[in-house]
Every structure is written in C-alpha cells, then in structure tokens.
Write a structure and sequence with these properties.
The complex is a heterodimer of chains A (301) and B (273). Chain A folds into 2 domains: 41 residues; 239 residues, Orthogonal Bundle (MetI-like fold), CATH 1.10.3720.10. Chain A has 13 helices and 2 strands. With 301 residues, chain A is an all-alpha fold. Chain B has 273 residues and is an all-alpha fold. Chain B has a domain of 173 residues: Orthogonal Bundle (MetI-like fold), CATH 1.10.3720. Chain B is built from 15 helices and no strands. In chain B, helix 4 packs across helix 8 and helix 4 packs across helix 11. Classes of the chains: A mainly alpha (301), B mainly alpha (273). At the A-B interface, helix 2, helix 5, helix 6, helix 8 and helix 10 of A face helix 1, helix 4, helix 5, helix 6 and helix 11 of B.
C-alpha cells in the first residue's frame, strides 16, 4: 500500500514531465508491445480468426520449416536483397566519392536527380517498371534489340527473371539514398587528410580504401543494418510487379518472405496462428542478421 | 589526359542521370499516349495527344480527387500528431529531471531495435476488433509517437533549448502548455521541418499498411487506387500512367523545389546516429 502511495506521489509531483512522455509509452505498449507479445502466443495456436483457438505447440513452426514455399521465399528474399545491395553500396560509395572530390561541376543537380526515386511511391514506380520491362512492348527489350540482342520475357517465361527486374528496380530506387548518406559522412572528413594523402602520392582508389571507407565505417554499418531490415520487409515492389499476386508470379519467382507472410493472413488467407509463426521467424532472421553485421564489423577494428 | 578523365566521369554521371530520369519521363509520356500506342512496338518515346481522353477514362474508373483527399488526411494527420508527440517527448527528456528518466530513455532506445514485423498479425486483429478497419485512425494513431522521433528531438532540444528559458517564462506567469506552444515550439521549427519531411514522405508513399486496413474503395489512398487499377480493372495503361503521375508529381515537384532541404531532412536521422 505504502509503495503504491509513494508511486502515485512521485507521479503527481513530476506530472508535467511524465505527461510529456506519456503519449509515446502508452501508444507503444498498446500498438507495438502488446501485438508483439500476443503474436508470440498466437504462433502456438491454430486459428482462422472466427472459431476457437486450438493449442498445437510447435506445430506451426514445424509446418513452416517443411514448407518448400517458405524456403523458396527465403531464398528469393536473400538473392534479391544481397544482389541489389552490391550496386547500391558500391555505387553509392563511388558516386559519393566522385561528387565529393569536386572534379566536376553541377554536383547538386546530379545529387538531386539520383535522389528522386526516394520521394516516389513504390507502387507507381513498380507499375512503370512493369511497363518498361514488358516482354513485347517494353523499352528495355527495345534497347536490347537495338544493340543486336534478343529480348527477354522478363516478367513471364519460367519466372526466373522476375527477381532480376526487382533487383534492378530496387537498386535504381535506393542508390541515391546511400549516396547522400555517404556524401554527408564524407563532407565531415577533413580536407587536410585527403590533401596529405595526395601529397604522399596516394591514388584515388587507395584514398577510397585506406581513408574514406575506414572513416565512414559507422555510417556504412548503419546503412548495412538498415538494408538488411529493408530486405526482409521487401513487399511492395515484387507484389506489384507480379500483378498483385500473393504467390509471387510464375513458379513463385518473385515470392518474398513478407508476401508469404501476408498471403497466409490477413490478406491472402485466414491462417492467423501460422502467419504469426512466420512473422516470428522473419523477426528472428532480422535480429540475427543485424547482430552478425554489427559483430563482424566490430571485430575488424 | 586530365580532360579525358574528366569527360569520362561526366559521361558516366550523365548516363546514370538519364537512367534515373527515364522511368519518370516515360511515365509522363505514357500518360499522353493511347493505350494502343503504349502496346505497340517499337515503343513511342515522345508525347502523344491523348491526355484528355486518358483523363476522362481515369475519372470514369477511379475517383482520383477523393484518393488525393484521403492521402492528404492520413499524411497530414499522422505527420502533425507525430511532430507534436515526438517534440513533447524529446523536450521532456532533454530538459526535465524526473525519477526513472535514464531507465525510460534506455527502454525507448531498445524499442527502436525491435522489428515490428513480429506483431503484425495481432495488430491487424486489434484493428478489426476496435472497428478501425476502413478507418484512417488505423493509419494515423498507432505510429504517431515513434521512438526515433523522440530520440532525434531530444538531441535537438539539448543543443537549442536552454532550461533557463522555461524558468523565465514561468516567472512571467505562463502555464506549462503556453510555455510549450509559445516559447519552445517556435525554437523547434527547423527540427519540425526535417522530421516532418521524413514522416510525410513515408506515410504518403506507404502501401502495405493501407493495403491491410483499407478495404473499401472510397477510403483508398493514392497508392491503393493505383494498385486497384492494375489488379481489378485490367489494362487501360494510358489512364493508369496518368494516375501514377497524379500520385508521384505533387511530392516530386515539392522535392525539386527544395531538394537540398529534403535530402538533408530525410537523411538527417541516418547521419546523426
């Protein structure tokens, strides 16, 4: 009793400060913490949203591990995420370095143009890319044929090229974001260091690998962690490009983990318990991957 | 030799710029073409004169103005609320002393590392139980006080809001709320602008959350309307491209007018960490 009284007394005494921070904590508990905990519980049940819940232990997780489609979705997600981030990361660094070196004029114009996709709706972009990559009438095949190649059936065929389209789309969208982040990191590095390196006879490549990248490491690690979270949440682009299909188009070529999850519930189906298990596995993957990235990059120092 | 190098760098940068612009350019071009012209080979690469018909077709299929209004309600509502709550939280953590402050702040930092994916199914069930399906509340309220925003506002307040200011205002007889809105908030305007841009762009372009909760077409936001045009109504690509332009252009034009400001605002969070 005394303790509660004291608690209320403290709350009252500092009510102004607590009132300021209360909205966040209340909303977080109600709309984040509670669903996250409830999701863990729900993942041990079979439930279609209407009838009674059946406790089935680890059954959902077992089914998940045995479902070939889940592994296909995981594989697709990793392929798209990793292959798309190579040009995003390297291209972003290279572009930032080039623009920062002041060898060219109009730096801001280029920056603005490369950043344009970041303020653009993913749905609209995906629809445009669908059209550009259309097998019969698309501009990409037109250009390939112009240079003497054969056109591809990008979004059709056996479905294996869907991933390529998503990778290109993703790299196109995010390269400017990484570039701007690296660029502002580089601008914080003192010019003197570069000049000293130049006097010592270091070329551009040496400067990049010996000076810029080590000094930018915290920022690069940040973008890597952010990218890996983004990779597992990849949904809109493959979903639209495959014609709003929950199964990822032909041969599940564009199926990602997030599509697999939402395809079980609440959008494509009503397996709420199973979908909760899927959500927990995806979360686990995100946590493991971002921890590994942080650890690996810490050890090198 | 130096000039050749320079020319090569320019060439690569310009080529890349062309690649970045082409999809936007083609979107505008296709908005003015007949659908039969879009579905022809070789592709038309310059503007046609079918804009008016495309507009009529688009208006017949979807209510783009309504979708625009819906997008505005959701985006402005969410952004305004989150700016209010984030600045309140950041201000308190920066300038007040209270028991449990350190603990609460580290809890707040930890929450930033928990991916929300884990709770998505119960979140949806919660929304339907509360009757928030087909309601903008589901898009505005749950995420309107985010940990990152508070963290960011706290840093800004620590550097820009002197505690003595509040004491002085108090002596002048101002109430807490008057102090916050009349004295503190004006100081925070640059921080509001940067955080506001971040929120605005994200919410305006968000597709997944509206897809989950908005099921009636009169509630659709712009991205949902676009998606419904390709999934429900087939292949009137002239109209679809025009609708895409309507969704993309408002934000793109604002961005092009204030690009420096946008880029520093959007990436401010990443750089500060």
């Amino acid at each position: 009793m005394k303790k509660t009284k004291k608690l209320f007394h403290t709350l009252y005494e500092y009510r102004v400060a607590y009132a300021y921070i209360a909205p966040f904590f209340i909303l977080f508990c109600a709309f984040n913490l509670y669903p996250i905990l409830a999701g863990f519980g729900l993942s041990f049940f079979r439930w279609n949203g209407l009838s009674d819940k059946h406790f089935i232990g680890l059954q959902n997780y077992m089914t998940l591990l045995q479902d070939g489609l889940f592994w296909k979705a995981l594989q697709n997600t990793l392929i798209i995420g990793i292959l798309a981030h190579i040009p995003i990361l390297l291209g972003g660094l290279l572009l930032a370095y080039t623009l920062n070196a002041k060898i060219i004029k109009g730096e801001n114009i280029f920056k603005t143009i490369y950043f344009m996709p970041m303020v653009t709706s993913s749905v609209a972009i995906s629809i445009i890319f669908m059209q550009l990559f259309s097998g019969n009438y698309g501009m990409v095949n037109y250009l390939i044929r112009l240079f003497g190649g054969e056109g591809y059936n990008w979004l059709g065929g056996d479905g294996s090229l869907i991933k390529v389209v998503v990778i290109i789309l993703f790299a196109w969208k995010w390269i400017g974001w990484d570039m701007v982040i690296y660029l502002s990191g580089m601008q914080a590095i003192s010019r003197d260091i570069y000049e000293a390196a130049m006097i010592d006879g270091a070329g551009h490549f040496q400067t990049v690998f010996r000076i810029t990248i080590p000094l930018l490491k915290p920022i690069i690690v940040f973008t890597l962690v952010q990218s890996s979270i983004g990779m597992f949440n990849l949904f809109t682009e493959p979903f639209i490009v495959t014609g709003s299909s929950w199964t990822g188009g032909i041969n599940n070529g564009g199926l990602t983990l997030m599509m697999y999850l939402l395809g079980k519930a609440p959008q494509g189906g009503t397996s709420y318990g199973y979908a909760s298990a899927v959500a927990y596995v995806i979360t686990l993957l995100i946590v493991v991957l971002s921890t590994v990235i942080r650890r690996l990059t810490n050890e090198k120092n | 030799m130096r000039n050749i190098k320079k020319a090569v760098v320019y060439l690569i940068l310009i080529l890349l710029a062309v690649i970045m612009i082409t999809p936007f350019f083609m979107m505008l071009v296709m908005s003015t073409l007949k659908t039969s012209e879009i579905f022809s080979f070789p592709p038309h690469l310059w503007f046609g004169n079918n804009l008016k018909t495309n507009f009529e077709n688009m208006s017949q299929q979807v209510d783009i103005l309504l979708a625009f209004r819906n997008s505005c309600i959701v985006t402005f509502g969410q952004t305004a609320l989150s700016l209010l709550f984030c600045s309140m939280g950041g201000y308190a953590f920066a300038t007040y002393e209270f028991p449990g402050k350190k603990k609460l702040f580290s809890i707040l930092l930890i929450t930033m590392m928990i991916p929300f994916t884990a709770g998505i199914i119960p979140w949806f069930i919660m929304m339907s139980k509360m009757g928030w399906i087909n309601s903008f509340r589901a898009l505005i309220i749950p995420n309107c006080a985010n940990a990152f925003g508070i963290f960011w506002m706290r840093q800004y307040c620590e550097n820009n809001v002197p505690i003595s200011l509040r004491e002085a205002a108090k002596i002048d007889g101002c109430s807490e709320w008057t102090i916050f809105f009349r004295v503190i908030a004006p100081i925070l305007i640059p921080a509001y602008a940067a955080l506001g841009i971040m929120q605005f762009v994200n919410v305006w372009n968000d597709f997944m959350t509206p897809l989950l909760v908005l099921q009636r077409s009169n509630k659709y936001t712009l991205p949902l309307v676009l998606q419904s045009m390709i999934s429900d109504r087939g292949n009137d690509y002239g109209a679809i491209m025009l609708a895409s332009s309507c969704c993309v252009l408002p934000l793109l034009i604002i961005f092009l007018c204030a690009s420096k400001f946008f880029m520093s605002g959007l990436t401010a969070g990443a750089v500060k960490e």
